[in-house]
Amino acid sequence: MAKKANSDAHHTFAIRLMQHMVVPTFVLDADRKVMIWNHACERLTGVMAADILGTQDHWRAFYDEPRYCLADVLVLEREDDLSSLYTSHTEPSETGNGLRAENWCTMPRAGHRLYLAIDAGPIYDDHGKLIAVVETLRDMTEQKLAQMALQNLAESDGLTGIANRRTFDDRLRLEWLRAQREGLPLSLALIDVDFFKRFNDGYGHQQGDECLRQVASTVAAALFRPGDLAARYGGEEFAVIMPGTLEHGANAVAERICDRIRQLALPHAHSDVAAHVTVSIGIATLTPAVDADFPALVSAADAALYESKHAGRNRVTAARRCRSARHSRRPRSSVPADVPDPVVHRRARNRCGPFPGRP
Question: How many domains are contained in the chain?
């Protein structure tokens, strides 16, 4: 009798200890019903223990729609679902030490999103049977936002705010591999501000920087699909990656960019083609072969851009075809020797802006 009373006292103490822990914690039994929902968990989620104890509604504290929490994954042995549930997680351990994950949670009752670091650990009886799972929560929102801000700085061009060259290179490589895997077309546009050195020399570097900022924002605003990427390629040159886009689609985007730059009406008294800032654009489209590498696409777009500039600037030129070969970028002064001639659509070398015959 005394032994049972002592055991009950220890059990009561353990529950009270968990209730008053500063770490938000809840416990599910083997049927996924909430056994404990401590005071810190109430403060974090805005959900009171009285509303959730004995139910399987703990998900309501974190999400707008029904889905498993990390403790549920352990109880149900649904570790294969981790990748679809959490942005970051550890792999299940053979020793049964539990799981760790991180995720954005909508927190409907609290009224604001939180980025939570989550740990879930199993509790077994003397016979190795699962009797409960403890889940603890840490609010990592401030750290995550700081990390995202630093990542954005690392990925963005300091002057224009759009993606930088490193981000462009990484994305192009990823999109190339995906296009190879799925057999999809990939289009690239290279954009050059016409006579920008003259603009810089004539108006000064501050105005030159402002010109680049406006061109960059205009290029980015002309992209309507979330998968497309605008980047500063270097100096006065920009690039646009367009996954899953055929040539006619890429040409439409390039023409839209060209026209919108013209509509900015930024004065450029030192240009030979217009009284305002204009751009030349070269586009290329390729469905990557299995053994090809992405420099083939860059070289083709580069050659098309060279043709746009050579033909008088302020226009879009589309590469007719480019061989899926492994070669590096050629200098702009010459068309790649291993690209069949002619490499560009003469019919696609249109001057930017309205002209007779265009709607």
Answer: 2
Which amino acid would we find at residue 334? Answer: S
Query: Is the pLDDT assigned to residue 340 strictly greater than 80?
Result: no
Q: What is the CATH number of the domain that holds 176?
A: 3.30.70.270
- Does residue 357 form part of some domain? no
**Average of per-residue pLDDT values in the chain:** 86
Task: Give the whole-number percent of the chain exceeding pLDDT 90.
Answer: 75
End-to-end CA distance of the chain: 94
Picking from 117, 145, 173, the residue at the C-terminal end of a domain is 145
Confidence at residue 260, expressed as pLDDT on a 0 to 100 scale:
97
Examine the domain organization and report whether 130 and 163 are in the same domain: no
**What CA–CA distances, in Å, run from 42 to 3, 26, 58, 148?**
34, 10, 11, 28
Report, as an integer, the average pLDDT of 218-223.
Answer: 97
pLDDT of residue 17: 75
pLDDT at 64 > cutoff 60: yes
Mean pLDDT along residues 7-13: 60
Q: Are residues 189 and 315 in the same domain?
A: yes
Structural domain boundaries enclosing 287: 156-351
Integer Rg of the chain from CA: 29
Q: Is residue 177 part of a domain?
A: yes
- Do 99 and 209 fall into the same domain? no
CATH code, 52: 3.30.450.20
pLDDT of 221 strictly over 90: yes
In a domain, 358, yes or no: no
